[in-house]
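Re: Re: token formats

Sure, here are both.
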Amino acid sequence: MTGSRVVAESVSRGHHVTAVFRRTPPDFSHPDVEVVLGDVTDTGHMRAVFGGVDAVVGATRPAPGAEDTVAATVTALLDAAAGKRVLVVGGAGPLRSPSGGLVIDDPAFVPAAWRAIASASMSQLRACETHAGDWVYLSPPAMLEPGVRTGNYRRGTTTILTAEDGSSGISAEDLAVAIVDELENPSRDRHFTVAY
């Protein structure tokens, strides 16, 4: 969901994109999109794919039940990027909650059914923090769904952003806007979040 929107947003701004898919890719019939099949854990292949790029967006999500693979996956991605800027789209779990503590422990943002993926985002961020690569970690808000591109969002650092009603969300389209904004104009933040 996020990756395809990052491709669309990037191309709309005049960037050439190499889109990597684990399985059969969707049809991106655009001259500025090169589609490649690949598995991020195949570091040698991915290093070759990343050889001609300026930056990498890691927007992979494990299948249900495979959440324990995220740390190894992000480490392989950072290894393959070999010095390229990598923006990792993670999860909201590691953010601070307005009620104190972390979002992962706040049922207002992480119901029991989401606990495994929220826990995976904790492991993913820890793997980034121990890697010497040039990475930035984006924690989306609690709710990320397909929607409309407005081009508007608020940016924060390590505390979840909420609306007046306490909700925390953004469309996948506007998350892509924030991702491409960060790639075009990198901040000094290693961990940031966005929301409406």
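Second one below.
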Amino acid sequence: MISHATIVGRAHRLMQHNCQDFAATANPAPHLAIGIVCDGCGSKFKENGRSHTSHNETGANLLGQFALDFLSQKLTELPTPICPEMLETALADLHLAALTFLHHLAAHFPKTSRREFIATRLLTTLVGFVHTPETAVFFWQGDGYLVADGRIQPLQSNNQPDYLAYQLLQPNPDQTNFQLAFVPQPDQLGWITVGTDGWSAPLLEQLNEPRSALTLQRWLNVQSQQRGQFDDDGAVAIWHKEMMNGE
């Protein structure tokens, strides 16, 4: 079972801002699961004494959907079983394709306004997972959370994520922070999750219970009403192992 959900943070609701997080999942082939979350930068862009409001939910939605569609097509074209080396190559291709995608979006804007467009529309994290019967891997650029069977790994950035689109502002082909981490003993994995930085460890631990997309969204709506939870937006994508009858 795979599911995903997003929630608008309390601070964003009070300021009447859009949700800057994105979440999506896909089962493009039997026993192949993909989950992705993105978090758009909320900071204002300041240049030449002017301040520009951030609308980076645009980049979160566009890049997140592009990554999901790209991986869905790429992975279904691979021979089975999909080995770790194949996944590593596919994710390296995703990284290059995502950069090209963002570059093409920005190229449509005049050079005089291109920098502002990138800084206010395309700055977003990208965190995801791929699960197959033989292997499971996390991939990311930016902050958030990785969870495997309740083992939680925060992706720290000191509130300064290295967004993929920074490469458009200051190109450096020798520098990349796009990272991968394979999950040990994937055949014994019960559930796997990625979340944006609006989550907390105690809430992530409660995702061990399988929920349909609708049930997950309802549960998340209730959690967001609790004091001290989800001041920022939240997005999550989850895979749970299907249990056979009697298990």
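The chain is about 35% helix and 25% strand. The radius of gyration is 18 Å.
- S.
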